[in-house]
Amino acid sequence: MDKIAVTCEENSLDAQVDPRFGRAAGFLIVDPDTMEFEYINNGSTQVMAQGAGIQAAESIAKSGAKILLTGNVGPKAFQGLEAAGIKIGQNLDSGTVRQAIEKFKAGDVDFASSHNKTGHWK
Amino acid sequence: MKIAIASGKGGTGKTTVASSLLSVWEAPVIAMDLDVEEPNLHLFLKPTITGKRTANMEIPKVDDTLCSKCGKCGELCQFKAISLMGEVLMIFPEMCHGCGGCIAICPEGALTTEFRELGEVTWGHSGRAEFLMGRLRVGEAMSPPLMRVVKEKLEEMMDTVSNDEISKDVIIDAPPGVSCPAINAVMDSDVILLVTEPTPFGFYDMKLAHEAFSPMGKPMGVIVNRAGLGNNDVYDYCAEKKLEIMAEIPYDRQIAETYARGSIISESSDEMKQLFISLAEKIKQTAGSKKSQGGMS
Known about the structure:
heterodimer, A: alpha/beta, Nucleotidyltransferase, domain 5, 5-stranded mixed beta sheet, B: alpha/beta, 10 helices
């Protein structure tokens, strides 16, 4: 199965899903079959004045994950993720990374066709 | 001589001072509104407009048949205006600052230019003064690139000297704040006037402006507007930092009414006219003494 990227507040499957995509603390890139994962620190985008969503989308594209589970995604990040062929599950920030993946495996995640947050200048 | 009228805090009276100073300044002089996000000097000068041009900025455009997806452009760009998403090179035009770095670094020559509209540059005349302003396009977020185009037009206007003996003075209505637009507006000036009000907000933002502009080493003076309001913090700070208070405009209902009607306050009474004539003298002295001391132009 394709690898899944999940925004996370800490480097752990039991960490809370970070509601922010662009400025998430980090990403867990999880193999849903074995639940093995690697951690990508996304802290550097938190000091960017702009372009955090684009930077984060670039990181996910590079990681090889084909699915993203997160809270909120802005317009530019959404465009970028879509261009890279990554499916986006939003509004999953009420639980842990493990719970989000279980929800996905159970077929309970709807993939978004548009971003759920507007840009800062709109 | 170029005189920048800046403030830190917005709404302290930059345009009030700029329009009044222009009214008593002898020609040849150019009035330049560099507050391109919200230009308003024209509301007081009511200039006759004789020309305008659209200001554009070069941004990158990709030829996908030439792009090798190396991603060097995206690594270079500090603003994420160009980014390699998997196998797709994406350009976000509104993020671009127009540096041209991506085009220069592309090894395949796959990037060429197209344009993003920044806004409009308008010019004309008002009484004895020539007039120049920039107005940012609604939705555009970056002022400095447009301000550069306005300044290019200023250079053209400076070059057309009617009388060979006298070069033109420029009075600049600057934007508020202390970030890039404000710095851009004052960086070419010979004198910076900080307009403030003696309130906690006015004091706090004047201090920020003084700190931000000080490294440029230009002579600075303070104009206290709404004098009589607030407290003594502005005066104490100016005394401590040896900043000259060049004028005090009283906190007065008559002045507010004159401004609200779109009239120029130095034209509303003899007292106000004298205040600005005396301010104009002090500005010339400040610029002149600095020149003789430091040889700055």
